[in-house]
Design a protein that fits this description.
The protein has helices at about 5-15, 35-45, 80-90, 120-130, and strands at about 65-75, 95-100, 110-115, 135-140. With about 160 residues, the chain is α+β, with helices and mostly antiparallel strands. Helix 1 (about 5-15) crosses helix 2 (about 35-45). The two termini are about 15 Å apart.
Length: about 160
């Protein structure tokens, strides 16, 4: 799909951080565009499948969530979907997914957990493994965040 200059402008601006203000999309106005114009352009891009969603990314560290742990558990194959849904319901879980177990790594259910303390995470894990009857799991704390930057596209004119 070929984008026109207004579409490129809107997409470029949408990649930037939003300010916490009453009208967060007002930064799109200007250069001949009013609020109604940019909303129409965004809707067109959604309808064409160029934009799938507009989402906020919260800096969890600024909110006090400073402990990050990857939970890896061994769940019987017939219970993986049910157990995964139960695990995903905990508020500290941001990602929960199934992976194929390997010969030397028997874990097939994974969840990224974010907490204010290791104790908070351990409490949730204890509740989960007891409720689901899981006796084999690992908690892998994050050692360092190596990359967390959104992809930004540059539109050639």
């Amino acid at each position: 799909m070929k984008l026109n200059s207004n579409q490129k402008l809107i997409l470029s601006k949408l990649q930037n951080d939003l300010e916490v203000v009453a009208c967060p999309f007002d930064f799109l106005c200007g250069e001949g565009l009013e609020a109604e114009d940019y909303l129409t352009i965004i809707q067109e891009l959604i309808d064409k499948g160029v934009i799938r969603r507009i989402a906020a990314v919260v800096d969890h560290r600024k909110l006090g969530f400073v402990v990050n742990v990857l939970f890896a558990g061994k769940v019987p194959r017939g219970r993986i979907a049910e157990s995964g849904k139960a695990l995903a319901r905990f508020g500290i879980v941001s990602h929960c997914y199934q992976r194929k177990a390997l010969k030397d790594w028997p874990y097939n259910l994974f969840a990224m957990m974010h907490g204010r303390s290791m104790g908070e995470i351990q409490h949730v894990v204890s509740k989960f493994v007891e409720a689901e009857g899981i006796d084999s799991f690992e908690l892998l704390p994050t050692a360092a965040e190596l990359k967390k930057q959104p992809v930004k596209h540059r539109f050639l004119t």
